[in-house]
Design brief:
CATH class of the largest domain: Mainly Alpha
Order of helices and strands: HHHHHHHHHHHHHHH
CATH architecture of the largest domain: Up-down Bundle
Mean pLDDT: 84
Structural class: mainly alpha
Helix content: over 70%
Number of domains: 2
Strand content: under 5%
Shape: globular
Radius of gyration: 21 Å
Largest sheet: none
Number of helices: 15
Low-confidence stretches: none
Number of strands: 0
CATH topology of the largest domain: Growth Hormone, Chain: A
């Protein structure tokens, strides 16, 4: 605790903010841990409908720049509270609205809007509350608190659904997640002050020298969305995995990412971002092919285990996306330019993911999961081939 106190300014409201992070993470863990099964078992969404829902869930991420521009006069604290309040509204909608596909999609979109708004404010508040030269540590504390909350939520879902099943269990968990979201919102009211939002998070920065970074973000966004949206749904619809199993898988993935994140960072520093960019997508090809074709090569129980392992491996492989940020750092002339460029990359990433979600559901329904994950593998190969064309820091200086 003393170490955390040293990171932040004594006059800042970092304590209620961190408590809010943990409670929000726990609420999200409960929500995410059961959502895919809820959509399949209660709302009865098929492959195509799941893709359409994901399209609307990602839409607030694409519109975030516009949304923040509208509220540019509001402080980071105010926007964070607004985001938490909208997330609570979305959770309550899940709890009280009939589980039709349209109304459930509306609730998911509402929750996602709040999530994207508050997510963008977390880093700004952590940086503004930290002591001089301790910004990186503050961001590390932010990440750790959220992960602890998420992991706890996944474990709770796993234990509850291992003991109970049925629609009433989903309602109970939505109720618990809503209560936690309300508590988090109440804690956020104790966050006073008027920290300004990071201006670079609200503007695009396009430059010719970043054209390869933009393309890499397009490839990454496309391939990421296939696993994020359809990875769990394949396990649910094709292998009949229940909510306890899916939540356990999320928990294992979270732990694996927590362990391997610093390791991947050191690998990037040692081998260079170009090597990592090429290698991670080549590994992805193997993961995608295993996910799409395991049931043709092995008995269903064995294929299911292979897919679960592949899902965790994909989560770890995704950590290599940090390499593109290092690439941007080497190209940038200033910190402000780097932040603005990365924000632009995130927006490009989101713009691609919404269409992949939409068409991915159609591809699965019309052509099968084999084609869907084969296309994801092809995108991985394209990413590797394109990454080979980028120049490293040594080449850039030449």
């Amino acid at each position: 605790m003393n170490r955390i106190k040293d990171i932040f300014r004594s006059d800042s409201k970092y304590k209620p903010l961190l408590i809010s992070f943990i409670i929000t993470g726990l609420s999200y863990g409960l929500y995410k841990g059961m959502l895919d099964n809820y959509l399949a078992e209660v709302v009865h969404m098929g492959e195509m409908q799941r893709g359409v829902t994901e399209f609307f869930r990602e839409l607030p991420g694409v519109l975030l720049v516009v949304i923040l521009a509208i509220f540019f006069t509001r402080s980071a604290e105010s926007l964070y509270k607004m985001g938490i309040s909208i997330m609570l509204l979305g959770m309550v909608m899940h709890l009280v609205l009939p589980p039709t596909q349209v109304l459930t999609t509306l609730a998911i979109c509402t929750y996602s809007l709040g999530e994207h708004i508050q997510y963008g404010m977390k880093s700004s508040l952590m940086m503004s509350y930290s002591n001089e030269g301790r910004g990186g540590e503050a961001l590390g504390v932010q990440s750790a608190t959220g992960q602890i909350g998420n992991l706890t939520g996944y474990v709770v879902v796993m234990l509850v659904f291992a003991a109970f099943a049925g629609r009433q269990t989903y309602q109970m968990m939505f109720g618990a997640a809503a209560v936690l979201a309300a508590v988090s919102m109440l804690y956020s009211l104790r966050i006073t002050g008027s920290s300004q939002t990071d201006e670079t998070k609200r503007r695009f920065y396009f430059h010719r020298k970043y054209s390869k970074y933009y393309m890499l973000e397009m490839f990454y966004g496309a391939r990421k969305q296939v696993f994020f949206t359809f990875g769990p749904y394949v396990l649910i619809l094709f292998y009949q995995a229940n909510a306890a199993v899916i939540s356990l898988l999320f928990a294992i993935s979270s732990i694996a990412c927590f362990i391997f994140s610093p390791i991947v960072g050191r690998i990037i520093d040692k081998l260079g971002y170009k090597v990592v960019m090429v290698t991670d997508t080549l590994l992805l090809v193997i993961v995608c092919m295993a996910y799409g074709f395991a049931h043709h090569l092995f008995p269903m129980p064995v294929a299911f285990v292979i897919c679960c392992v592949s899902y965790v491996l994909d989560s770890v492989i995704s950590l290599a996306s940090m390499a593109s940020n290092v690439y941007v750092r080497d190209l940038s002339d200033s910190q402000e330019e780097m932040k603005a460029t990365i924000s632009t990359g995130v927006s490009i990433n989101h713009a691609i993911t919404i269409f992949i979600a939409l068409f991915g559901g159609w591809i699965w329904e019309a052509l099968g999961i084999e084609t869907l994950f084969m296309l994801s593998a092809v995108l991985g190969l394209c990413n590797s081939a394109y990454a080979l064309t980028i120049k490293t820091k040594k080449n850039l200086a030449a």
